[in-house]
Amino acid sequence: MRFPPVCLKVEGGRPRIVRSVEHAMFVLEHRWPNDHPTREKALQICRYALNGKTGAAAARDALVYAAVNADIYIDLTSVQR
């Protein structure tokens, strides 16, 4: 499930452009720096999206919210669609 791109720079790594619920889940599960409660909530919302219980936009919003709360660099403006 695709959504408008989000650019994240997690733990000093290269910027990652996330464009789908599946990629968001991968980043949250394998590249996230901590087990902050907003990370767990974002994962839950991504699972809901994949199961058709909510939309991709909700998963994107949860990813952005989790990034802000984890002090992860995020850029929503300069990413090419």
| Principal-axes shape call | globular
How big a fraction of the residues is strand?
15-25%
Largest beta sheet: what is the strand line-up?
2-1-3
Give the radius of gyration. 11 Å
Number of strands: 3
- Report on the biggest sheet: 3 strands, antiparallel
Instruction: Provide the low-confidence segments as ranges.
Output: none
Account of the 3D structure:
This protein has 81 residues and is α+β, with helices and mostly antiparallel strands. The protein is built from three helices and three strands. The chain has helices at residues 21-30, 37-50, 56-69, and strands spanning 2-9, 16-20, 73-75. A three-stranded antiparallel sheet has the order 2-1-3. Strand 1 and strand 2 (16-20) form a beta hairpin. The mean pLDDT is 91.
What's the topology here?
Blueprint lengths: L1 E8 L6 E5 H10 L6 H14 L5 H14 L3 E3 L6
Antiparallel strand pairs: 1-2, 1-3
Helix pairs in contact: 1-2, 2-3
Describe the structure in brief.
With 81 residues, the chain is α+β, with helices and mostly antiparallel strands. It has helices spanning 21-30, 37-50, 56-69, and strands at 2-9, 16-20, 73-75. Helix 1 runs antiparallel to helix 2 (37-50) and helix 2 packs antiparallel against helix 3.
